[in-house]
Specification:
The protein is built from ten helices and 16 strands. With about 300 residues, the chain is of the alpha/beta class. The radius of gyration is 20 Å and the shape is globular.
Length: about 300
């Protein structure tokens, strides 16, 4: 048996139940979990806005850290919490291919967020080819992915500015290496960054933020779009786009092949172990307060990553 946070009915608070674990198949392992990541997709699933391939009740959570045969591991797959029970539990039975070895000594709270926030930060910075001398604007810099991006870009010698909607979140952005914090909405962003002339923009927002960032960018700049939390639609100045030879690159983690995901995660975990990549943890909730963790995603009260302590 294992204690788990169970989705019993869409749109209703999750409930803590004792759940019988299935017998592992030959290609499956039993992982004793310590922490689990809390992500927007989990909230969407709880509210019935994400596809669920199995009947309720269901244990949510797609990523977590724990131990397998005494060794630290990351458990991660988009299948977890959607097509089979996930990681918001003391123990999970998962296919071995969903389990990733973790270097000894790495903070297991940070490991619990590597499947989504860590992997995304690693891949978008690589896709943008951020290097020494770049001027990088990180939109949504105080978020669960934004903060790791700020730190990783700064570790590569780039000058980083971070945009946020609240000055109260600015100190966390500066602590990861941002030279300046830009408190701006979409309407004021262009004027706020015009003198910076970013060579790279990392954008999880979309809408007017994307349009404003493109106007301010240095010629031949690269914008990596990996989310549209402000809006999925934007009006762009196309002449600026082609006359300045700007590149817009899209990143979607669900499009990674299994081989790409494993290779990228192994590299990102090594970066975490070396200190080049950091996953700032905004708050840790006990498993019993899982609904409070989900609510924090809705009201955006947490700076950094939200995780559950499941054991």
């Amino acid at each position: 048996m294992t204690r788990a946070a169970r989705l019993v009915e869409f749109g209703k608070p999750l409930e803590i139940h004792d759940v019988e674990l299935p017998e592992p198949a030959p290609d499956e392992v039993v992982v004793e979990l310590l922490f689990a990541g809390v992500n927007p997709i989990d909230r969407s699933a709880a509210e019935g806005r994400a596809p669920m391939q199995v009947p309720l009740p269901r244990t949510l959570g797609s990523e977590g850290s724990g131990r397998l045969e005494g060794k630290p591991v990351l458990v991660f797959s988009s299948v977890l919490g959607a097509e089979r029970d996930g990681t918001w539990a003391e123990t999970v039975v998962a296919p071995r291919e969903y389990v990733f070895a973790v270097p000894e000594g790495v903070d297991m709270q940070e490991v619990a967020a590597m499947g989504i926030a860590g992997l995304t930060a690693w891949n978008v910075v690589n896709l943008a080819e951020v290097g020494d001398g770049d001027r990088v604007l990180v939109l949504g810099a105080a978020g669960g992915v934004g903060l790791p991006v700020v730190g990783l870009a700064a570790s590569r010698g780039a000058t980083v500015w971070g945009q946020t909607s609240s000055e109260g979140k600015g100190e966390a952005v500066r602590a990861l290496g941002a030279e300046r914090v830009v408190v701006a909405d979409a309407a004021s962003l262009d004027e706020s960054i015009r003198d910076f002339r970013p060579t790279v923009v990392i954008d999880p927002l979309g809408n007017g933020f994307t349009a404003a960032a493109l106007l301010a960018m240095e010629p031949r700049g690269r914008l990596v779009l990996f989310g549209t939390s402000a809006s999925a639609e934007a009006t762009l100045q196309l002449r600026e786009l082609y006359r300045k030879r700007l590149s817009i690159l899209g990143y979607g983690g669900l499009r990674l092949t299994n081989e790409e995901r494993r290779t990228d995660l192994e590299a990102a975990l090594e970066a975490l172990a070396s200190g080049r990549l950091r996953i700032p943890i905004g708050r840790v909730w006990p498993l019993d307060d899982v609904n409070g963790a989900l609510e924090s995603l809705a009201n955006r009260t947490v700076t950094g990553k939200a995780i559950l302590q499941v054991r």
